[in-house]
Design brief:
64 residues, mainly alpha
Length: 64
């Protein structure tokens, strides 16, 4: 089976991650302490950041 790289999906994912992280870090000061990500730890902040990126990916998919 030949595997082909999907450039449009790559760009959609990249945009979603960059925008989602930008939103997360812009709102970081306003988040509760438990929703803030601590470096090198798996915590609720990581889940909140992932959720924001996932929402952005859904919005990008709806637009395109």
């Amino acid at each position: 089976m030949h595997w082909k790289f999907d450039w449009p999906n790559f760009w959609r994912s990249l945009i979603a991650v960059l925008v989602g992280n930008a939103i997360y870090y812009a709102s970081w000061r306003h988040l509760p302490v438990r929703a803030r990500h601590q470096l090198y730890q798996v915590d609720w902040g990581l889940a909140v950041d992932f959720w924001m990126c996932l929402v952005c990916y859904g919005i990008v998919r709806l637009i395109r």
